[in-house]
TrEMBL record:
UniProt cross-references to InterPro entries, sorted A to Z: HARBI1-like (IPR045249), HARBI1_dom (IPR027806)
Protein name as annotated: DDE Tnp4 domain-containing protein
Cleaved signal peptide residues: 1-17
Alphabetical list of PROSITE patterns matching this protein: PROKAR_LIPOPROTEIN
Gene Ontology molecular function: hydrolase activity; metal ion binding; nuclease activity
Domain DDE Tnp4 per the UniProt entry, residue ranges: 240-400
Family of the protein in this entry: Belongs to the HARBI1 family.
Localization (cell): Nucleus
GO cellular component, one term: nucleus
Keywords: Hydrolase, Metal-binding, Nuclease, Nucleus, Signal
Amino acid sequence: MNRVSVQGAALLGACAASTVTLNVAMQQFAGGPGAGDVGNESEEDDYPPSLLVANTNTQVLALMCAGGVSSADVLESISPEKWYIKPRSSQWWDIFLSQRENEQPGNWKRFFKVSRSTFEYICNLVRGDLETLKNPSNFSHITGREISVEKQVAIALRRISSGDPVSSVGKLFGAGNATVSKVTRKFIKAVVERARGHLKWPEAEQLEGVKTSFETLTGFPNCCGVVGLTHINLLFSPDESSLQWIDRMGKVSMVAQGIVDSNMRFLDVCIGWPGANDDAEVMRNSTFYRLSESGERLNGLGKLIAGNTIGEYILGSTGYPLLPWLITPYPQDFVNTRNEILTRTPLQSAFNGRHEAAMVVVDNAFACLKGMWRMLAKPSRNSDSSKLSSLVFACCLLHNIVLDRGEATGEELVLSGHHDQAYTPLFMEQYDDSDGWQYRDTLAECLASQNRL
């Protein structure tokens, strides 16, 4: 914190000469933006007026003179050496919280993207982390200024779901910029730690349900999900000296890969790879790839169809490698083992149509993820790749919590347009001598035998 040390004549001079408004003076004292910086707020403004600002009578008096703060606005805590500014109004939140859910049933989803019951579930999930007292001067535990768990969760959910600037969110809750940022970071960390049970690969019995639902929706038998990825755009590169964060569209981005079931629920995620990595590279560097290649995943019972056994697999776009457990569409033209150029057959084209329809599930899941948690849809100012990865993971967990509690995401929450607008599809070079070709041909024949093509 910037400390003010004013004595004698200097103090009197400050009182006589000051014509700075309260808002600007307080921001300058706290290390925030000055008059020339309006509109360029920083989420890392660590000491706004809502936090502790001085620890001696002289310092508080100097602050009052410089900014015109009256004695009524400066309150003394239990410790006579610590002072803080009277908190902003949080009347909106107090009134909102006091309402019964049946009075305004749509308000909770409108403001926080979750129902009140799910909001309370999330509060209980992270309560232990948000109540923990780290140190005597912790921002949420200054005597008389405690921020309740409910208010912390509300601040964080509003920030993440709206993507609004910290200043706008702060005005709703009577909190400063730094308070909003710190509450949000603390909440994200707590969700990542406490909600992991909502995003994990299904056990055998659960996976049977996933496969049944997926076959009902898409017609693909024994399919365990669909894989895809999306780009999280950044304003600044985590590493200015490296081009690895510049993706194929020339944007600075981070890649998030997800495998979803027929209900758009995330079963597995791989987050944090620089945007220059393509679909295949992200997959090959994922834990899911390692487990699947070693036979530790997608190793359940096969399904017998028309005399052929179909093992477990997932579907992927043309940007992914064709593997026995990762089925991609047929290319337009391909070369066989005799170096003959072949064109897709009607059966293969029909298979691609079925495959394309199934891939919509993962596109909708990412569109819903960015639509509900709009902080992901806007270029991030956070150049810390670790913190950004945690944010994306937390949003995936919150996405699953909403689904697990039986709440429909709602078409109104889906991001308009494609979740990766302007990103062109990738095409992975494929060869017809791979085991993947045989599995795909067998799968296509099975679908045709069941009149699903």
